[in-house]
Write a structure and sequence with these properties.
Blueprint (H helix, E strand, L loop, with lengths): L7 H12 L4 E6 L2 E5 H11 L4 E6 L2 E9 L3 H10 L4 E6 L3 H5 L9 E7 L18 E7 L2 E8 L4 E6 L5 H8 L3 E5 L3 H10 L3 E5 L6 H12 L12 H17 L11 E2 L7 E2 L1 H7 L13 H5 L5 H12 L5 H16 L1 H11 L5 H9 L5 H21 L6 H6 L6 H10 L20 H28 L5 E5 L3 E7 H8 L8 E5 L3 E5 L1 H34 L1 H27 L5 E3 L4 E6 L2 H10 L7 E4 L8 E5 L6 H17 L7 E5 L3 E5 L12 H15 L5 E5 L7 H19 L2 E5 L15 E11 L2 E10 L7 H8 L3 H19 L3 H7 L20 H7 L8 H16 L1
Parallel strand pairs: 1-5, 7-10, 9-12, 10-11, 13-23, 18-22, 21-25, 21-26, 23-24, 24-25
Antiparallel strand pairs: 1-2, 2-4, 3-4, 5-6, 7-8, 8-9, 14-15, 15-17, 16-17, 19-20, 19-22, 26-27
GO molecular function: ATP binding; ATP-dependent DNA damage sensor activity; damaged DNA binding; mismatched DNA binding
Function: This protein is involved in the repair of mismatches in DNA. It is possible that it carries out the mismatch recognition step. This protein has a weak ATPase activity.
Keywords: ATP-binding, DNA damage, DNA repair, DNA-binding, Nucleotide-binding
Length: 879
């Protein structure tokens, strides 16, 4: 086949594909989505499905693969996760309509949606308890801005964001896809991909701020955006790019975006990507949710509440009034157990209204989404009653939007069955009694089956053929079927005047009658008419719900707020957590603090209680720094992390795992705990460590909380010691912040006597008969040794290595005491040669007891003989 003789269908495919060259094209053919050429090769590898061929093009076989339409969502998810974009081309007309234009006419097709990582809406493609953000970063002159939306919920936010702040803000949001101008793609590609997001470049026109303002006003049908706030040119450009991209990917069916909320740049605690990773705030180092802080504290009952909780932990507030209001709400529910339990029980029956509403707005919803709105609003009214009578505060504010939905609730209850089907095309979701015409049509459709059964009985009586059946298939419709033996009677007079022959098969003969044809037409028309009536009602119900979308969204937000407060309260009661005191001071005092994740893990393992510790960085002096020493495995890193997490939880509005806590507002949280190679960038472990340390020293202000663990360990001893020493001095003199600084360099403990804001603390251990017992207690003072050799023995190093290490250590310590460590290393080179040979085995003569034991047959001894034998051997040993 030459290019000129390409089939009409393939010509249509190539025309559509040319418009979406960077996406895999799902080309609808009946019950399958087909893929061709390079798309087929890529998809077959990604999805592990068979690759076949269909005809030729330019002399080459056309590669082809396909997936069933009913299973398409699972394949879409697999492709999206592997970095592909998918364009979905649907049949836009009935094949019968295409045939009217000619026998060779092709069914009209067009792309109805471009599926990308940031534009997913289906439940099967999303995590119910996590946001799926699409971000856009714009720069206008020297001004930068970041806008983001989750189209599955309709949330839209924007904030000023200079380029240096882009990385930490994207780390906070963890978006799936980021839009940038084509002029900035090369510069931002590495940064965005390092954070695990897909990058999509748009033309400069998409980021034009003037055009963006018009686009946004048209979206919300307003003359000006002033009612929503004052936005800079870069903020308008970022939001405009989002809307432009959604118009492209959703093919004109824009999601139900709420008016934008503007976030202040300094409104939340600043946490960079390295700190989020080190502290495992929303994801563990392994990549999953299990083992993270979010996993340990999440007791929310709703999907909306879980997403709000993740936002709170990712961006703890710096507004004292906001923090206090959230803590007050948790405090009230801690004190009122009955209200807390009733509220949580009611919340468990709240469906995900945000995502149901979004699917309805995008015309991807079904009857179950309408039922979700009905159920959610009904529960909201019950929860509003629970909240009545409370003193004004965050809980009553959240409950304000839960009332006033009686009309739409009543409409949905009257119109929908209790458990509707997933898809409108399945029918059967409109309740009986709602529409008289629909009820009558359904009766005709359903009673037609009884009419068919009566006709069959009549024909059996008329013919005397007991095996006669009336059946149905999609080709013949209703027909009468009998065996070939009995068919002769029906073909003969007088029965042949009633029964009309239609088809003969190997063993059966099929007939019809005039009455049967007439009733078939009525039954088929009734079924189709009933479905059309239901679809019409679905459109009306959808429109009614979308007309109330704003108020429904407010109710969903209120329910999420109540859910987070109730979850925090339940956690505080169950885990014995305390309300923190958060103020504008520089205090940091934690009494009997615990690590929430480690404590939970110990409880699950049955490994005993977590050892709580105090941390007092509260001092008249500013800064206040603890220099923490102690052996590996003693718990230094756990102590550092738990105090950082306590500060984070306090400003997120939660109670904290401690007996008491006084937290002066923390503006920035920095953590450098552990490190690994970054081979993709050519960075060694030490380079990663230094990059992260540099970021802290260059950014931390006097309200920051910094935790540093083992700075300088990735290089030579003296290099590492000097870097750690200088880092601590810089934190004290220049950054003047609160810090916990763990180190194995005991020489640094001398700084406590030189820097007024530095105090020594140590994690205690105890030696018992050569064993090291980790007490996990933190107390003031400095460790006298590291116990590294003992820890190595616990790790399973061979005894010969441990013994040799002890010899080397004693030599080094002796040189240190004499001030000649370097000289001792050089002069005593034999110290470092291969390990000495094992001592020869000494052969000894067996003792009398050993000789006697060899002659004994234990199975032949009576209990009395065994006891007597023990006394004899004991006597022999005494001699």
């Amino acid at each position: 086949m030459t290019e000129e003789t390409v089939t009409p269908m393939m010509a249509q495919y190539l025309e559509i594909k040319a418009q979406y060259a960077d996406a895999i094209l799902f080309y609808r053919m009946g019950d399958f989505y087909e893929m061709f050429f390079a798309d087929a090769v890529a998809a077959s590898e990604a999805l592990d499905i068979a690759l076949t061929k269909r005809g030729k093009h330019l002399g080459e076989d056309i590669a082809m693969c396909g997936v069933p339409v009913v299973a398409a969502e699972g394949h879409l998810l697999a492709l999206i996760r592997k970095g592909f974009r998918v364009a979905i081309a649907e049949q836009m007309e009935d094949p019968a309509e295409a045939k009217k234009r000619g026998s060779k006419s092709v069914v009209r097709r067009d792309v109805v949606r471009l599926v990308t990582p940031g534009t997913l809406t289906e439940d099967s493609l999303l995590e119910a308890r996590r946001h799926n953000y699409l971000c856009a970063f714009a720069e206008v002159r020297d001004e930068g801005a970041l806008a983001w939306t989750d189209i599955s919920t309709g949330e839209l936010r924007v904030m000023p964001c200079p380029r240096p702040r882009l990385s930490p803000e994207l780390a906070r949001l963890a978006p799936r896809e980021v839009l940038v101008s084509e002029t900035a793609e090369a510069e931002l590609d590495g940064l965005i991909r390092d954070l695990g997001a897909a990058i999509t470049s748009l033309s400069r026109a998409s980021f034009d701020s003037a055009g963006a303002e018009k686009r946004l006003c048209a979206l919300w049908q307003v003359g000006t955006l002033e009612a929503f706030g004052s936005f800079g040119r870069a903020e308008l450009a970022a939001m405009g790019a989002l809307v432009d991209y959604l118009e492209l990917t959703q093919r004109g069916k824009l999601p139900l975006l709420r008016p934008p909320l503007r976030e202040a740049l300094g409104g939340a605690m600043q946490i960079d990507a390295a700190t989020r990773r080190n502290l495992e705030i929303t994801a563990a180092l392994s990549g999953g949710r299990a083992g993270s802080l979010l996993d340990a504290v999440d007791r929310t009952a709703t999907a909306g509440g879980a997403r709000l909780l993740e936002r709170r932990l990712a961006a703890p507030s710096r507004d004292l009034s906001v923090i206090a209001a959230r803590l007050d709400a948790v405090d009230l529910l801690v004190d009122r157990a009955r209200l807390r339990d009733d509220l949580r029980e009611a919340l468990r029956r709240v469906p995900d209204m945000d995502r149901a509403l979004s699917r309805l707005a995008l015309d991807r919803g079904g009857p179950r989404d309408l039922a979700a709105i009905r159920s959610g609003l009904s529960q909201a009214a019950l929860i509003a009653d629970l909240m009545s009578g409370l003193e004004p505060g965050l809980l009553t504010d959240a409950a304000l939007g839960l009332r006033g939905h009686d009309q739409i609730i009543s409409y949905l209850y009257q119109s929908l069955v209790e458990e509707p089907p997933l898809l409108a095309r399945d029918g059967g979701f409109i309740a009986a009694g709602f529409d008289a015409e629909l009820d009558a049509t359904r009766r005709l459709r359903d009673e037609g089956r009884g009419v068919i059964a009566a006709m069959q009985a009549d024909y059996i009586s008329q013919t005397g053929i007991q095996s006669l059946k009336i059946k149905h298939n999609n080709v013949l419709g209703y027909f009468i079927e009998t065996t070939s033996t009995h068919a002769e009677r029906m073909l003969a007079p007088p029965l042949n005047e009633t029964f009309i022959h239609r088809q003969t098969t190997a063993n059966q003969v099929r007939f019809t009658t005039v009455p049967l044809s007439e009733i078939e037409t009525k039954i088929l028309n009734a079924g189709n008419h009933a479905l059309e009536l239901e679809k019409r009602h679905f459109a009306d119900l959808r429109a009614a719900v979308l007309a109330e979308a704003g108020r429904i969204g407010v109710a969903a937000q209120g329910l999420a707020e109540l859910d987070v407060a109730a979850g925090f309260a339940d956690l505080a009661v169950a885990e014995d957590w305390a309300r923190p005191h958060v103020d504008a001071s520089h205090a940091f005092h934690v009494e009997q603090g615990r690590h929430p994740v480690v404590e939970r893990a110990l409880r699950r393992q049955g490994a005993g209680p977590f050892v709580a510790n105090d941390c007092a960085l509260t001092d008249e002096r500013t800064p206040a720094i603890w220099l923490l020493t102690g052996p590996n495995m003693a718990g230094k890193s756990t102590f550092l992390r738990q105090n950082a997490l306590i500060a984070l939880l306090a400003q997120a509005g939660a109670f904290v795992p401690a007996r008491a806590a006084h937290i002066g507002l923390v503006s920035q949280l920095f953590s450098r705990v552990g490190a690994s190679d970054d081979l993709a960038r050519g960075r060694s472990t030490f380079m990663v460590e230094m990059v992260e340390t540099a970021a802290i020293l260059n950014q931390a202000d006097d309200r920051a909380l910094v935790i540093l663990d083992e700075i300088g360990r990735g290089t030579a001893t003296y290099d590492g010691l000097s870097i750690a020493w200088a880092t601590l001095e810089h934190l004290h003199d220049a950054n003047r912040c609160r810090a916990l600084f763990a180190t194995h360099y005991h020489e640094m403990t001398a700084l406590a006597g030189k820097l007024p804001g530095v105090e020594n603390a140590t994690v205690t251990v105890k030696e018992w008969e050569g064993e090291v017992i980790f007490l996990h207690e933190v107390k003031k003072g400095a460790a006298d040794r590291s116990y590294g050799v003992q820890v190595a023995r616990l790790a399973g190093l061979p005894p010969a290595v441990i013994d040799r290490a002890k010899v080397v250590l004693e030599a080094l310590e002796a040189g240190e005491r004499q001030g000649t460590r370097q000289k001792a290393l050089i002069d005593d080179l034999p110290l470092f040669r291969a390990a000495p040979p094992a001592p020869s085995k000494v052969v000894t003569k067996p003792s009398a007891v050993e000789a006697r034991l060899r002659d004994i047959q234990p199975d032949e001894l009576t209990p009395m003989q065994a006891l007597k034998l023990i006394y004899e051997m004991k006597q022999a040993l005494a001699e």
